[in-house]
Amino acid sequence: MKVTDVEKLQQIATEVRKNIIEEVYNASSGHPGGSLSAADILTVLYFYEMNIDKDNLKEKSRDKFVLSKGHCSPALYGVLAEKGFIEKESLKTFRKINSPLQGHPDMKKVDGVDMSTGSLGQGLSAANGMAIAAKLDGIKNRIYCLLGDGEIEEGQVWEAAMSSSHYKLDNLCVIVDNNNLQIDGKITDVMNGQPIDEKFKAFGFEVIKINGNDISEIINAFDKAKEVKGKPTAIVAKTIKGKGVSFMEDQAGWHGKAPNEEQYNQAMKDLVK
Amino acid sequence: MNLENKKATRESYGEALAQLGKENKDIVVLDADLSAATKTSIFAKEFPERFFNMGIAEQDMMSTAAGLASCGKIAYASTFAMFATGRAYDQIRNNICYPKLNVKICASHAGITVGEDGATHQMLEDLGLMRGLPNMTVLCTSDDIQTKWAVEAINKVEGPTYLRFCRLSTPSIYDGEIPKFEIGKGVQFGEGTDATVFATGVTVSEALLAKEELEKQGINIRVVDMHTIKPIDEELIIKCAKETKKLISIEDHSIIGGLGTAIAEVLTEKCPTKLTRMGIKDEFGKSGPAKELLKYFGLTKDEIVKEILDV
Predict the structure, then answer these.
(1) Where are the domains of chain B?
(2) Which residue, A7, A9, B16, B198, has most beta carbons within 10 Å?
(3) Given an 8 Å threshold on Cβ–Cβ distance, is A130 in contact with B59?
(4) Could you write out the DSSP letters of every residue in B210-248?
(5) Is the Cβ of A58 closer than 8 Å to some Cβ of chain B?
(6) Which of B28, B50, B63 is the closest to A122 by Cβ?
């Protein structure tokens, strides 16, 4: 069920954001900042772009997604709940003992999680493996991988980038959630990975730069990426960390911290607006 | 044992892989610029479309193998043991073992028998590293034939396995025997009760030579080829502990974490018995011809004989 209406997608993204806050608040831990920055990208992926539904979840031919920045699991679970792959009520078990919703995504525990991630820098390599497997099997699906802008400080990301273009993986689309903040501060202060777009270009990617919190721009970017032949695409998405929750926006401190009750109420109020 | 008929187990691996590739189209092979040495080149020549050279990027190779396995492929990833298990440990742990994906890590050039390349390339901790990982099966084979049996066996395991090879050629031990390889079951040579020598990989033939020499002196030992380090053959270890006067383990690996440790764990909990661990004693390797290094680090027939005679 493809949703093409931008307003409808914005509404879903707001629901995903509420889910994120709900999860992190109930767990009293987790990573809201980077989850909120990526909420629009994940919403467009799962409701507009990817060929994925409850009916084809087990099929080899469906599209796949690797959340390389695995700590943003609240966003992934949040969108999977909106898709109906997991019960919305189960979001309250996030990070609790015996919950399938582990702190970082576990592919063996949750339908719709395509790769277990958490240790940063590994997801793009795994996505490459999926893209290669699809080509070997003659399957026309697409593989998506979301990287954090702090995450790309890991050397393996660039080993993988080299490999994506070496193997001409035009069925692969990388999205960099460029919210400009990592745990210790601005990425440009901690370890400057800019210019991100030029780096991916140099590694042989088609690069598209967008505002990653603008639904229309995200849609257009995915549409364009599909037309690229003979090389992989990287969408460098400028986003705001904590997007949608007033006091979390652009604050490194909200990378891995849960709101208290008062902050939870404020966040939910912000998201109703 | 045929001392004249020598072959490196990595060579046998390459041949076995090419054979399996014919039978199973889901087998894919990855290497990190060492296909000539790990012998995955034999597979690459036959099935170029299913062989992926990942360049000198072991971390990327392991995670890519995980991605392939997540799509139903049986992914064989090979490079030197040092880089496979050392450099890419996190990837093996989090991308392969945690989700229990069907990746076969087959690593060559383990141990001091790498020889002249020296310490930076002589992996002595890989068995320990791999053994500690949940969901991982760990093997180390002793000759050509057993390696072929082992490759067939791991191909049937649904989940990650680590198979360790050395650079050195080893004498043929199982030539002409009917296949009887079972993961987790050690192979006992002889019924001697004076001592048991548990060996693995290149040290099995040394142990068998020691057994022959001791027999001439009227001392009867048994040798156990522990081709599987995990799951370790507890039953056989306990049996030997009860039936023989002395227990020795020998491996081209650190005495910390490998075969000796695995045996000691079983003995401590189930049958407290003294065990002498022969291996590399908490130090790095060094350059030199493999045979001389085996002597230098005390991993030869003569050292085993001395240990048993208590001289």
Answers:
(1) 7-172, 187-309
(2) B198
(3) no
(4) HHHHHHHTT--EEEEE--EEES--HHHHHHHHHH-S-EE
(5) no
(6) B63
Instruction: Please state which CATH number belongs to domain A6-272.
Output: 3.40.50.970
Residue B4 CB neighbours (<10 A): 6
CB neighbourhood size of A97 (10 A): 5
**Identity of residue B253:** H
Choosing among B71, B89, B93, B97, which should be mutated to test the A contact, i.e. which has the most A CBs within 10 A?
B71
> Contacts of residue A160 in chain B, CB cutoff 8 Å?
60, 63-64
Separation of alpha carbons B268 and B280, rounded Å: 21
**Which tops the pLDDT comparison, B179 or A247?**
A247
Sign of the Cα torsion B36, B39, B42, B43 reads negative
CB contacts of B62 in chain A (<8 Å) are: 125
A167 — contact with chain B (CB < 8 Å)?
yes
Give yes or no for residue A273 having a pLDDT over 80: no
Least confident of A14-18, A30-34, B10-14: B10-14
pLDDT band at A85 (very low <50, low <70, confident <90, very high): very high
Nearest to residue A16, comparing CAs of A85, A86, A77, A67?
A: A77
B58 is catalytic: yes
Vertex B21 angle, CA B162 and B67, to 5°: 55
Say whether pLDDT at A21 is over 80.
yes
Which amino acid is present at A122? Q
Q: b or e along B92-123 (b: 16 or more beta carbons within 10 Å of the residue's beta carbon)?
A: bbbbbbbbbbbbbbbbbbbbbbbbeeeeebbb
CA B280 to chain CA centroid, nearest Å: 15
List the domain boundaries for chain A.
6-272
What's the mean pLDDT in B64-83?
Answer: 98
Q: What is the architecture, at CATH level 2, of domain B187-309?
A: 3-Layer(aba) Sandwich (3.40)
Q: pLDDT tens digits for A22-71?
A: 999 999 999 999 999 999 999 999 999 999 999 999 999 999 999 999 99
How many other C-beta atoms lie within 10 A of the C-beta of residue A60? 13
**pLDDT, tens digit (0-9, with 9 covering 90-100), for B214-251:** 999 999 999 999 999 999 999 999 999 999 999 999 99
Categorize the per-residue pLDDT at B2 as very low, low, confident or very high, splitting at 50, 70 and 90.
confident
pLDDT at residue B179, rounded to an integer: 77
Partner-chain contact A126 B67, CB within 8 Å: yes
- Residue A110 touches chain B, beta carbons under 8 Å: no
The fold adopted by the segment(s) B7-172 is Rossmann fold (3.40.50)
